[in-house]
Amino acid sequence: MSKKIFSGVQPSGNLHVGNYLGAIKNFVNFQNQTNTECIYCVVDLHAITVRQEPNILKENIRETVAAFIASGLNHKKSIIFQQSTVAEHSEFAWILGCSARMGWLNRMTQFKEKAGIDKEKASIGLYVYPVLMAADILLYDTTHVPVGEDQKQHLELTRDIAHKFNLDFNSPEFLKIPEPMIQKNFSRIMSLKDGTKKMSKSDPSGLSRINLNDTKEEIENKIKKAKTDTLPLPDNSKELENRPEAKNLLGIYSSLNNQDISNTIKEFSGKNFSDFKNKLSELVIEKIYPISNEMSKIKKDNSFIDNVLLEGNIKASKISTKKIEEVKKIVGL
Ligand code: AQP
């Protein structure tokens, strides 16, 4: 059976190693598989659920495309496009919002985390964003969605909404039920300053994450300052359970090197953090710095980036216009 892949990244700036290892690296793997059609979206409508500076947003949209291409995506093989240019996403989100239930949205933990204590002041967009995400995915008859572990609950909601819509309108199998593709190992990269918190674009501390556009010196400095504990590195994975920072750094090393954590543990068992951090810096510079370098070259050519998006927007519109027409017919609009 052929696969249809859809995933998105928010152009909210500060793209980091977590976004790369949890999502973008996988996007590239799928692109290179046979019988697989890939659609990757710069989800700008998701980004504006929290305040974005208009001029910076425009730049961040281009920067996200630059990160996709610098990481190995090829716009001739995959559809790369900008969500807000394909109006069917918003239109479908409204229709799906009429099938989704409040109780389901109330359970979304990401809303609770992002809205904080005073959730009355959060935007309605932030609350209903998982419905827009469902529309993004279901519009393209997606079969598989590669995402980081933090998006698992939203994917389950997407599946529930699709089931409910098919049931409500007596159209079994009209909306395809997508499968999440979450990496088994290190699907959640943690902050360099707190191994219990997700590495995140919006963390106010720049030292908490390695950005995809960091210089070699910035990478070295951030790894040097990353939080650790005082013990030498362990010889078994069980011991890592109570050592979140050690677990995270060993995980980043394993994931970048495409190796099992057990091999990384074997390599560094008994060593102190400063030796390990030197090796980790070397590896991050080897794997991430070329992406950073390539991103700055691509970013110099705005017309190239704009053309990549224009090409992708046309291809995405073609698919989504057809699907929304079918949706409207089923709903009776
Ligand atoms: N720390 C992470 N580890 C693994 N995967 C991650 N992803 C994000 N953070 C990590 C995955 O990256 C993809 C794109 O994420 P996004 O831009 O849509 O938004 P997000 O999940 O909200 O990412 P951030 O960095 O945490 O942004 P802010 O701070 O704005 O909320 C997704 O597949 C995500 O799972």
Task: Describe what you observe in this structure.
The strands form two sheets. The chain has a three-stranded parallel sheet. A two-stranded parallel ribbon has the order 4-5. With 333 residues, it is mostly helical. The protein has helices spanning 17-31, 44-47, 54-71, 88-97, 102-106, 109-115, 124-138, 152-168, 216-224, 244-256, 261-268, 273-299, 302-331, and strands at 3-9, 36-42, 79-82, 144-146, 179-181. Helices cover 53% and strands 7% of the residues. The structure holds adenosine-5'-tetraphosphate. Adenosine-5'-tetraphosphate binds at residues 8-10, 12, 18-19, 22-23, 147-148, 150-151, 187-189, 198-202.
CATH architecture field of the largest domain? 3-Layer(aba) Sandwich
Structural class: mainly alpha
How many separate structural domains? 2
The helix fraction, in percent, is 40-55%
CATH class of the largest domain: Alpha Beta
Oligomer state equals: single chain
Bound heterogens, unique: adenosine-5'-tetraphosphate
For the largest beta sheet, what order do the strands appear in spatially? 1-2-3
Number of β-strand runs:
5
Helix/strand order, N-terminal first: EHEHHEHHHHEHEHHHHH
* Range of strand content: 5-15%
3D shape: globular
Mean of pLDDT: 95
Main sheet characteristics: 3 strands, parallel
Our count of helices gives 13
Radius of gyration, whole Å: 21 Å
CATH homology group of the largest domain? HUPs
- CATH topology annotation of the largest domain: Rossmann fold
What is the CA-CA span between the terminal residues? 33 Å
Question: Which residue ranges are poorly predicted, with pLDDT under 50 across at least 5 consecutive positions?
Answer: none
